[in-house]
């Protein structure tokens, strides 16, 4: 599967693909980033190969801006 966003929090980056292994019904994708903050953000998982699957879209959520820190 491949992840995409509706763009309400900028562009998606990091790891945006994963494989649903045979005999499984889920996949965990870590390291996903969004370039900005925003409200009404959704992520959509879409099939890229293999069995026919319907795209799935998350419920809308809010991405908060990061607070800069001094090391």
Summarize the structure in words:
The chain is mainly beta and 71 residues long. Helices cover 0% and strands 32% of the residues. The protein is built from no helices and 7 strands. It has strands at 2-5, 12-14, 32-34, 38-41, 43-46, 56-57, 61-63. Strands 1-5-6 form a 3-stranded antiparallel sheet, with no helix packed on it. It is elongated and about 45 Å long. It starts with a strand and ends in an 8-residue tail after the last strand. The model has no long low-confidence stretch (mean pLDDT 93).
- Helix percent reads under 10%
Q: Tally of extended strands?
A: 7
Mean pLDDT: 93
Strand % is: 25-35%
Order of strands in the sheet with the most strands? Answer: 1-5-6
Shape: elongated
Structural class: mainly beta
Ends distance: 37 Å
| Poorly predicted parts | none
Radius of gyration: 14 Å
Layout of SSEs?
Blueprint: E1 2-5, E2 12-14, E3 32-34, E4 38-41, E5 43-46, E6 56-57, E7 61-63
Antiparallel strand pairs: 1-5, 2-3, 4-7, 5-6
Please supply descriptive tags for the structure shown above.
single chain; 71 residues; mainly beta; three-stranded antiparallel β-sheet; two-stranded antiparallel ribbon
Can you give me a brief rundown of this structure?
This protein has 71 residues and is mostly beta strands. The protein is built from no helices and 7 strands. Strands 1-5-6 form a 3-stranded antiparallel sheet, with no helix packed on it. Strands 2-3 form a two-stranded antiparallel ribbon. Strands 4-7 form a two-stranded antiparallel sheet.
């Amino acid at each position: 599967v491949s992840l995409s966003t509706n763009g309400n929090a900028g562009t998606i980056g990091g790891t945006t693909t994963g494989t649903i292994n045979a005999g499984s019904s889920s996949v965990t994708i870590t390291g996903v980033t969004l370039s900005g903050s925003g409200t009404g953000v959704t992520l959509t998982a879409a099939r890229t190969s293999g069995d026919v699957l319907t795209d799935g879209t998350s419920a809308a959520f809010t991405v908060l801006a990061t607070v800069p820190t001094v090391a």
